[in-house]
């Protein structure tokens, strides 16, 4: 059992966890949507080409939100292990120009009632593994 498998959202809601990875400027990302029982509703990974870790994290978030919208999945919670990206998304920090447009689009894609919060890497294990796979 991993911590991310145990911490499901409240009854009747969905949670999206995403993560990005950048090794030698090659970026990838992944994520998972779970219901309140911890059942996986959607899992994804993708390569994003050349970039940096902030871009990988932002692109993984964006891809996850787009996939949810395309499939009619309304998430209530989104968790990332990048405190930097969470703070930029929540307008606590200024976003670098390279990810500003991605975050702006993410704000249009996420349901207005949803929260975006930070979790430690240990609680984001499956998303981390999917990002590494991408």
UniProtKB/TrEMBL annotation:
Stretches assigned to the RNase H type-1 domain: 17-133
Matching InterPro entries: RNase_H-like (IPR053151), RNase_H-like_dom_plant (IPR044730), RNaseH-like_sf (IPR012337), RNaseH_domain (IPR002156), RNaseH_sf (IPR036397)
Signal peptide as annotated in the record: none
Pfam families: RVT_3
Domain of life according to the entry: Eukaryota
GO function terms (MF aspect): nucleic acid binding; RNA-DNA hybrid ribonuclease activity
Protein name, per record: RVT_3 domain-containing protein
Naturally occurring in which organism (per UniProt): Cephalotus follicularis (Albany pitcher plant)
